[in-house]
């Protein structure tokens, strides 16, 4: 019976910048309904650090349990090929996009197999958010293009958050706000959200960013105004205002609340890798910070529109965004590819420490076992 070497990058749950690479010999045999996939490439961004940071509170560690106390699999998005299958409708050699551990291989229980793909119905994943259990068959994905795989990995996981956040805001009539103040405006998720709101001229989009990133943010062309953090105190408070928080900076949140005062109508915490504490309203004037979670809005829209229409609308928006950012005339993001688990290890440490250029999209080829 044949075997393969399973290589895994494990993260120290108590110190996300620390990791280790482990190897083990595994049997290639698959039981009925099982598939074995070889993970070829993945994107690693601050979004993945956020997954790990929220690993306990949002159950992200539970998708790919390691069985080793204190060590977890940091989830990533990427592409994998089927190398063994005992699941009807899933063939060896097919390529799938989805949610994976940073590992050379993954074994899954394929159920709800359709033209579109399948769901992993492994027992430990059944209680978890189903959106993360879905694997898309590249040959049936209307937005898949081999030459754009890197952009899909880098953008799609963040863009679903952006797309559904923009939808959540307009679905709630922007909570009465006429101005949206968006922190960490240089981040990919913030940019995607602003891109999705370009057709809502009734709201003014104000980008909050650092002095270092000011020119970069202005060049994105989707914010009406770009403001450095140091300039917040000079901003007008003449309109109902919403704070969309991608930074998680507690001091900045306090400054926002005290500066805008009664003009602040909603505080939306969209997530941060730097601060994973649930926002507190202690000693803050104005609205209580509210945590935004994309799967809740996805579930609502699935009920409102049906999953097919949700997918159609998301695919159209995503195609438009990827077409925009992959155009050589838009130098928003430079894709950087690296090989192997050691490169992934270094990248995670640098992302955790804030040492990766915001204009770079980093992709790791895992089929090289360096």
3D architecture notes:
With 370 residues, the chain is an alpha/beta fold. It has two domains: 3-141 and 333-365, Medium-chain alcohol dehydrogenases, catalytic domain (Quinone Oxidoreductase, Chain A, domain 1, Alpha-Beta Complex), CATH 3.90.180; 157-296, NAD(P)-binding Rossmann-like Domain (Rossmann fold, 3-Layer(aba) Sandwich), CATH 3.40.50.720. Helix content is 28%, strand content 28%. The protein is built from eight helices and 17 strands. It has helices at 46-53, 149-171, 188-196, 214-220, 250-260, 294-305, 307-326, 340-352, and strands spanning 3-12, 19-27, 34-43, 71-72, 75-85, 95-101, 105-111, 117-120, 134-137, 179-182, 204-209, 225-228, 241-245, 264-269, 290-291, 334-339, 360-365. The strands form three sheets. The protein has a six-stranded antiparallel beta barrel. The chain has a six-stranded parallel beta sheet with strand order 12-11-10-13-14-15, with helices on both faces. Helix 2 (149-171) packs across helix 6 (294-305). The longest helix is centred in the middle third of the chain and has 23 residues, at 149-171.
Please give a handful of descriptors for the protein shown.
about 375 residues; alpha/beta; Quinone Oxidoreductase, Chain A, domain 1; Rossmann fold; 2 domains; 6-stranded antiparallel beta barrel; 6-stranded parallel beta sheet; 17 strands; about 30% helix; globular; DUF2855 domain-containing protein; DUF2855
């Amino acid at each position: 019976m044949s075997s393969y070497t399973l290589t895994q990058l494990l993260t120290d749950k108590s110190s996300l910048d620390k990791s280790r690479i482990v190897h083990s010999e595994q049997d290639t045999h698959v039981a009925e309904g099982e598939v074995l996939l070889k993970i070829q490439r993945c994107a690693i961004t601050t979004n993945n650090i956020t997954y790990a940071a929220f690993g306990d509170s949002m159950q992200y560690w539970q998708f790919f349990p390691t069985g080793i106390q204190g060590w977890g699999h940091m989830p990533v998005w990427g592409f994998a090929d089927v190398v063994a299958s005992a699941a009807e409708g899933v063939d060896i050699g097919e390529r799938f996009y989805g949610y994976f551990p940073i590992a050379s291989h993954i074994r899954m229980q394929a159920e709800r197999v359709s033209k579109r793909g399948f769901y992993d119905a492994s027992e430990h994943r059944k209680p978890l958010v189903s959106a993360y259990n879905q694997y898309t068959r590249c040959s049936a994905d209307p937005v898949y293009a081999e030459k754009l795989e890197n952009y899909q990995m880098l953008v799609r996981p963040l863009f679903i958050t952006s797309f559904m956040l923009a939808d959540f805001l307009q679905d709630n009539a922007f909570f009465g706000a006429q101005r949206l103040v968006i922190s960490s405006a240089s981040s990919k998720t913030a940019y995607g959200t602003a891109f999705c709101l370009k057709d809502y001229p009734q709201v003014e989009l104000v980008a909050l960013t650092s002095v270092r990133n000011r020119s970069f943010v202005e060049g994105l062309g989707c914010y009406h105004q770009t403001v450095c953090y140091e300039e917040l105190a000079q901003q007008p408070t003449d309109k109902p205002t919403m704070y969309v928080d991608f930074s998680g900076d507690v001091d900045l949140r306090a400054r926002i609340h005290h500066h805008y005062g009664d003009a602040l109508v909603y505080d939306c915490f969209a997530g941060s890798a730097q601060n994973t504490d649930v926002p507190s309203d202690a000693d803050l004037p104005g609205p209580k910070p509210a945590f935004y979670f994309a799967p809740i809005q996805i579930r609502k829209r699935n009920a409102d529109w049906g999953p097919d229409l949700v997918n159609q609308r998301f695919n159209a928006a995503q195609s438009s965004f990827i077409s925009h950012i992959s155009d050589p005339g838009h130098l928003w993001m430079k894709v950087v590819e690296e090989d192997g688990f050691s490169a992934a290890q270094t990248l995670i440490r640098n992302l955790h420490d804030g040492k990766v250029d915001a204009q770079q999209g980093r992709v790791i080829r895992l089929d090289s076992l360096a």
